Amino acid sequence: MKFFSEQTNNSILIFGFNTFRNLPNKIHLNKQNRAFYILSKDKIHPNKFIDNQFNSISDLKEFLATYNGKKDIYLCGGKFVYENFINYANEVYLTTVNNKLLNQTEDLVKLDLNNLLKDFKTNELIYKDKDIQIYQYKK
């Protein structure tokens, strides 16, 4: 969590609505210096945690094309966001979590990482402890 907080400071974070809705409360409460942008076809009631909403794929693509390279933008999931917008990323931080940390009732999202990361040429393990590993992929 510390790495995520430090890395995303002064940045825009883009989430699909379901992913955003399921975030731990401490991420919402520690929002300082971050803008939360949500992709959802349904209208979301404005609240103090959501700074902007994209109602369509084309709206988000236009935003990414306009601001890519001008502002730090993080695609934070879920699966739909990763599969449709990973090509806009210059870097990927992939976190793997020890199975013992996962709630047994959680539905795990399955991603085809080989396909998603095929355009990224290098990767490096940048953090490891007994519970998680973080890899950085670059184009």
C-alpha termini separation: 25 Å
* Residue fraction in strands: 25-35%
By DSSP, the count of extended strands is 7
Cα-atom Rg, whole angstroms? 15 Å
CATH class: Alpha Beta
Secondary-structure-based class equals alpha/beta
Order of helices and strands: HEHHEEHEHEHEE
Q: Helical amount among residues, as a percent range?
A: 25-40%
Provide the CATH architecture.
3-Layer(aba) Sandwich
How many domain units?
A: 1
Total count of helical runs of at least 4 residues: 6
Overall 3D form: globular
Largest sheet: 4 strands, parallel
CATH topology: Dihydrofolate Reductase, subunit A
Q: Return the average pLDDT rounded to an integer.
A: 88
The strand order across the widest sheet is: 3-2-1-4
Q: pLDDT below 50 for ≥5 consecutive residues: which ranges? A: none
CATH superfamily: Dihydrofolate Reductase, subunit A
Plain-language structure description:
One of its GO terms (biological process) is tetrahydrofolate biosynthetic process. This is Dihydrofolate reductase. Residues 1-139 form the DHFR domain. It contains 6 helices and 7 strands, in the order H-E-H-H-E-E-H-E-H-E-H-E-E. By secondary structure, the protein is α/β, with parallel strands linked by helices. It has a single domain, classed as 3-Layer(aba) Sandwich (Dihydrofolate Reductase, subunit A), CATH 3.40.430. The strands form 2 sheets. A 4-stranded parallel β-sheet has the order 3-2-1-4. The two termini are 25 Å apart.
